[in-house]
């Protein structure tokens, strides 16, 4: 079967977009993994099926059709489902705009619920929803709630203290100790998180560069190390604000990732916005086996 696709990225977090506007495809995990395979397929950190919300197979998603015409059906490169993808929302929105299917501001449906998107100059801005601590009491009393062990960290054998945050999908944020070089951490294997998150976790490693500026590397659930993660940069900014003593801080933080720079706006009520670029790289046709 011939399958049209578009390849795109947001700060080099790259995706294979599959337009399936009327929801006729039922992609298996193996088909997704092959599309995302960088040697045998097109290659990407994830696969995004673009579907009319009303045609989504899941009843809870289809129920959002009155508020959002389009559903971002996001899959990780290993074929697993994920609730949300921040960088993916910008690439998804950019494809919809190119095709004349949306205006300058609209909502989309995701497995984490509705997300509002708007175009602002060269950037796409996504309202990423409301974040929460996985264990608010422990976070507030200890500052941390888990430990992360990286298999091959330079000079470091001790696990790092970390904080579990939920932004629709699960994250574990590590504030790197001063003596650890962010670029020295090797993330070829998934970091071990303790206690083990029931649905797995994306793991972010954060270094403060100065007021309002941090850098981050990430190991994504279902993928491996990626060059950016939109939900990840948001929780990195939230964790940084929390550790600096102001859990309900508002304002903008710039986050540098290997694939570029993103801006996170911390809003009242534990809401957060993400602003950054999105690029559509190529269109083509592949074969679905
Ligand atoms: N790259 C994404 C996150 C994609 C999903 C993640 N791997 C998960 O399993 O939760 C982003 O930009 O947020």
UniProtKB/TrEMBL annotation:
NCBIfam families: DapF. This is Diaminopimelate epimerase. Keywords: Amino-acid biosynthesis, Cytoplasm, Isomerase, Lysine biosynthesis. It is an enzyme of class 5 (isomerase). Catalyzes the stereoinversion of LL-2,6-diaminopimelate (L,L-DAP) to meso-diaminopimelate (meso-DAP), a precursor of L-lysine and an essential component of the bacterial peptidoglycan. One of its GO terms (biological process) is lysine biosynthetic process via diaminopimelate. It is found in: Cytoplasm. Substrate binds at residues 13, 76, 86-87, 169, 202, 220-221, 230-231. Its EC number is 5.1.1.7. The lineage of its organism: Bacteria, Bacillati, Actinomycetota, Actinomycetes, Micrococcales.
